Amino acid sequence: MEDPVVAWCPGHISGYFKPVYGKDCKKTGSLGAGFVINEGVIAEVRTAVSTEVQVLRVNEDRRVIERAGRSPPIEYLADRLGVRAAITTRCRLPIAAGFGLSAAALLATATALNRLFSLGKSPQECAFIAHESEIMHHTGLGDVAACQGGGRDCRLGPGISAEIIRHYDVVEPVVAVTFGPLPSPHVLGSQQVMEHIAGIYPNRCPHDPPDLFRLSREFAEKSGLITPEVRGALGRCDLEGVPASMTMIGNGVFGYGQKAVDVLGPLGEIFLLGTSNEGVRIVSEGGEYR
What we know:
Layout: E1 5-20, E2 29-47, E3 52-58, E4 64-68, H1 72-81, E5 85-91, H2 101-116, H3 123-137, H4 143-146, E6 152-155, E7 164-167, E8 174-178, H5 184-188, H6 191-199, H7 209-223, H8 228-240, E9 244-246, E10 252-256, H9 259-264, E11 270-273, E12 281-285
Parallel strand pairs: 3-5
Antiparallel strand pairs: 1-2, 1-12, 2-5, 2-6, 3-4, 6-7, 8-10, 8-11, 9-10
């Protein structure tokens, strides 16, 4: 069997955002701020007679703990690129939990397919097709743009070509806990919810990581999206003085600092994250990824 091409893309935690709907996907997306995280999605692609997609979630030993046999956004992307491929994506973080994994899967897949089929597309062209698929399927608005690079990001305009300010000043761990899926299409597909969210946007970039948590928490409180589980977790963080907010958009909480491990740990499986120093990249070609 032909050796695969494998690409990796970091995920993204969004603290707050403002949806923008333009005349086309190039002008549609979101402003906002968050963290590009050092966990993401591996996409492995091979040529095939017809496009087949496997979406896998694995544990630390790379054993499969969740499996899905279809992904309309990825299938759309392959069709948009004009190729047919066997595509497998792998992630460790929970899916549909506010970690930007749909964007990471699309951008990693586009990058890998571009290399496998020698399509000659630029990184920005790959990013646009991934962004277009996110918009078309209501799975995200600004994560693809953020995942083109690393760091703590602040997106100043919609789409993948807008200016993004990136800082590499996150010195404490970002600790996340999730309480189950909160599928993005249910929120991003609601005009009423999106209009409300646009009206509460802070309209500035954070000065530093603690300021990002302050602005994110104010946004979350006004959003109307806080679930009972998230409310309980935020209450625990408040009592212990841990900066924390709700993952946007996901039924979970992310906190800042080592103390967040002890505070959020009793609530479920926690994920100890840092910021990624880079965006999407090819990690293997001509050999199996290990």
